[in-house]
């Protein structure tokens, strides 16, 4: 498998074999990292001599730290670029042509998906999507690696039920990823938050090719039947903070509760969430929601979030291993194919 020179903008551009390859490369790199404290000789050089630049138009904890740690682990230099001229005194096209002369790869997180596509079109180097309004492909690699580690069966024998805002970046990316690897995908979401019909059509086509299904319902209990994974995300994504009142009204029935977890009919169902999550009152946003709307927990109850079924911190760690795999696969001169 040779992915050298490829951008990673969406899983739509990747085949089942390529996605499985990235996940297994991540698992290998994770094993290697675990050996490092006892055997410093295994420290990585797969990105030695490379430099990457990270552009963030939205906030981040996991994604930024994953790119930085992954790059350092394999010997690359990193610039976290804030206050650039881009879009203010210099066009995106000119800016990324400059960045492409200095860096071997560019990560971008921001709003319109077309921005990350433009960066890939003009920069001349691999570009990695760190989240846009429409997609979050690196998240899905981590979610799938985590599911494999916990469930111990092939991805194409699993069912994932996504409950909540059915058309946000994470939901879209999961639906694409599931269809591509042959995992059954069910989304429970209100009528006004359905994924776009064209994306659903595309995913149903890939799912059919890979022997799986994409189903849509407004009933969370119907969606989670037989699910191996119940997944949710926050109700207002970055940039949608002004929609809090309407989303609470719409999505309150979609909160992931212990009763929903039990309704899969499987003892082994895991709970996944990309994080950050509003499962308690320990953030200023959750406090504001509590004072204004009287809600102590939002998309998932604290009970489920902290339960043994919850694998959310494994997912968070796996962001780093999977992002490392994406960079190594698309940049490394020394990776053996
Ligand atoms: N899951 C995720 O992308 O987290 P950050 O927003 O912290 O990067
Ligand atoms: N849907 C969320 C994901 C955060 C990782 C957002 O865009 O804010």
Concise synopsis of the structure shown:
This protein has helices at about 15-35, 60-75, 90-100, 115-125, 135-150, 170-180, 195-210, 220-225, 245-250, 260, 285-295, 300-305, 310-330, and strands at about 50-55, 75-80, 105-110, 125-130, 160-165, 185-190, 215, 230, 270-275. The chain has about 325 residues and is α/β, with parallel strands linked by helices.
Descriptors:
337 residues; alpha/beta; Rossmann fold; 5-stranded parallel sheet; 4-stranded parallel sheet; 43% helix; binds phosphoric acid mono(formamide)ester; binds norvaline
Protein architecture, described:
This protein has about 325 residues and is an alpha/beta fold. It has two domains: about 10-135 and about 320-330, Aspartate/ornithine carbamoyltransferase (Rossmann fold); about 140-315, Aspartate/ornithine carbamoyltransferase (Rossmann fold, 3-Layer(aba) Sandwich), CATH 3.40.50.1370. About 45% of the residues lie in helices and about 10% in strands. It has 13 helices and nine strands. It has a five-stranded parallel β-sheet. The protein has a four-stranded parallel β-sheet with strand order 2-1-3-4, with helices on both faces. The N and C termini lie close together (about 5 Å). The relative contact order is 0.16. Bound molecules: phosphoric acid mono(formamide)ester and norvaline (NVA). Norvaline binds near residues 168, 169, 170, 233 and 234.
């Amino acid at each position: 498998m040779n992915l050298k020179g490829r951008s990673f903008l969406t899983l739509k551009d990747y085949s089942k074999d390529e996605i499985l390859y990235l996940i297994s490369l991540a698992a290998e790199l994770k094993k290697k990292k675990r050996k490092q404290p006892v055997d410093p000789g295994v420290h990585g050089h797969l990105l030695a001599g490379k430099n990457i630049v990270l552009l963030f138009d939205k906030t981040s904890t996991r994604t930024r730290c994953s790119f930085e740690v992954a790059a350092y682990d394999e010997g690359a230099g990193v610039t976290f670029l804030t206050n650039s001229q881009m879009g203010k005194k210099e066009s995106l096209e000119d800016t990324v042509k400059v960045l492409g002369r200095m860096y071997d790869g560019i990560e971008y997180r921001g709003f319109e998906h077309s921005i990350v596509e433009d960066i890939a079109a003009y920069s001349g180097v691999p570009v990695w999507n760190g989240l846009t309004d429409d997609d979050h492909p690196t998240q899905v690699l981590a979610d799938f690696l985590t599911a494999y580690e916990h469930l111990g069966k092939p991805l194409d024998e699993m069912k994932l039920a996504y409950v909540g805002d059915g058309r946000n970046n994470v939901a879209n990316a999961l639906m694409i990823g599931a269809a591509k690897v042959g995992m059954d995908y069910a989304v429970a979401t209100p009528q006004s938050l359905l994924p776009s019909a064209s994306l659903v059509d595309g995913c149903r086509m890939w799912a059919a090719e890979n022997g799986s299904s994409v189903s849509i319902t407004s009933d969370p209990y119907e969606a989670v039947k037989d699910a191996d994974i119940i997944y949710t995300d926050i109700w207002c994504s970055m940039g949608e903070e002004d929609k809090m009142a309407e989303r609470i009204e719409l999505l309150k029935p979609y909160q992931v509760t212990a009763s929903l977890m039990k309704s899969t009919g499987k003892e082994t169902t895991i709970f996944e969430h990309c994080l950050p999550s509003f499962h308690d009152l320990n953030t200023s946003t959750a406090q504001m929601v509590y004072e204004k709307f009287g809600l102590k927990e939002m998309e998932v109850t604290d009970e489920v979030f902290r339960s043994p079924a919850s694998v959310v911190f494994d997912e968070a760690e796996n962001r780093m291993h999977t992002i490392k795999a994406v960079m190594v696969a698309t940049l490394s001169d020394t990776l053996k194919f």
